[in-house]
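Box 3.1 A note on notation
Throughout this textbook, protein chains are presented in two layers. The first layer is the amino acid sequence; the second is a token string describing backbone geometry. Keep the layers aligned when reading.
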Amino acid sequence: MSTKRRIGAGVVGLALVATLGLTGCNQDNTPKAYNTLTQQNFLELCTNLYFNSSDDTLAVTSNTIKADVKAPTQAQCQCQYDVFVNQVPINDNDISKPGYNGPNFTDLNAELKTDPAKAWATVPASVIDAVTACLKGDASTSTTAPVTTTTGA
């Protein structure tokens, strides 16, 4: 497979995974901050597994959302979520990422529902590169301490 084809396939895969992860935030319930609920929604749709939430702790279950879906690992999905938390403002009111020049998390989420390719075209290369590194298993992207996750049934 040529390098261009591999890159193209990787970008399409990245768009699909991110679409799954970001669509967990319903526009009727737009988040005002990154929190356990945004993390749970992102991880569930990214990993294709349900999580239980209790006291700001997420526990992965063995229950899948959709059968026969190949999804990234929990570590890869957590890494991607951390990229968004650290690099992308949650909404227009979030000024915690000075100098960021791209769509915020909630706007990106809305656009991914209608035109994923167009939405990803507006995301800064630094964010795309960090999310791609997560999918490759390179957890060297800058992250904050995630909400504790435990394995449970």
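The first helix runs from residue 3 to 22. Residues 141-153 have pLDDT under 50 and may be disordered.
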